[in-house]
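Justification of resources, computational component.

The compute hours requested in this renewal are based largely on the per-chain cost of generating structure records like the one below. Each record pairs the submitted sequence with a full structure-token output. That output is archived, and it is also reused by downstream analysis tasks.
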Amino acid sequence: MIVALAPVSGGHFNPAITVGLWVTKRVGTLQAVLYCATQLAGAIAAGYILVALLPEATWRPVSLGATDLATDFTRMNGMLIEGLATFLVTFVFFACMSDVASGTRPSGGIAVGLIVALDVLFVQPFTGASMNPARTFGPALAAHHWLNHGVYWVGPLFGGVVGAVAYEYLFVSESES
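The structure output for this chain reads:
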């Protein structure tokens, strides 16, 4: 979907990346707000579609896949690990999908997918590996599961901003911005 929709929307489905794009002035304020609203609306629709399609006995025990922290894993640790994972996703997204010098490359979607998969392998046991506030919000709203919900906004948004700013600072020259 990233590659397929990159020519239309830039291929970002994550408010953390959108906020990173906004902070680095790659999208305007109105555009960022509209992207985030659309991302949240898509996540809400997906959550309620799953509620409509799946028997409650199937999704209720797992809260429709809503993310949560592992037992004895603190909120601070959750925010830090979600932030680090989102930093990696955002940094790779910026390098492969939105680099001013090289432009969008179809292989960029593969690179972003691979870093998400790697993050999931390492982070999922601790936080559920959301890395995306919209991904967490949709199921949480549909399943009414708000436990530790702030972790999945603070960590990813912080990681997204730091990843975007780090990429800009390290790899984008003044003449390109």
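The two ends are 27 Å apart (CA to CA). Residues 2-170 form a domain with the Glycerol uptake facilitator protein fold (CATH 1.20.1080.10).
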